[in-house]
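Researcher: Structure for this, please.
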Amino acid sequence: MSAFALAFATEYKKYMKAHKVRQRQIAEYLGFTEAYVSERVNGKRAIDTNDVDALAALSGTTGRSLMIELARLTKETLRQPVSETASVASQLEKVIGKKIQVEKAAYRDENKQAESGRENMD
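Model: Predicted structure, token format:
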């Protein structure tokens, strides 16, 4: 999926949380399974207009208004500079499904000394 589609899914999920809309509610509204909604909310499949319309109806707005708002927020998110480390960590998190604490991971790296060129050459 494109960077825009992933960022859009993130904003969709944030909007759901802010308006206390659960995946189950969207699934029921659409007549699909929670797995269907989960794949879209978590960026595994693209969110479509039906998904936006469902969230809009459940949060008391129109599909058009919500689409415009989510697109605006997504555009802002994509304009923010991202460090190379944060970008790589974010991509890894999506693959392994766990939050990576970069600072702690670097601190515990057994190869850190060897990679710095200061390894014990005995």
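Researcher: Any notable elements?
Model: The domain at 3-79 is CATH 1.10.260.40 (434 Repressor (Amino-terminal Domain)). The two ends are 49 Å apart (CA to CA).
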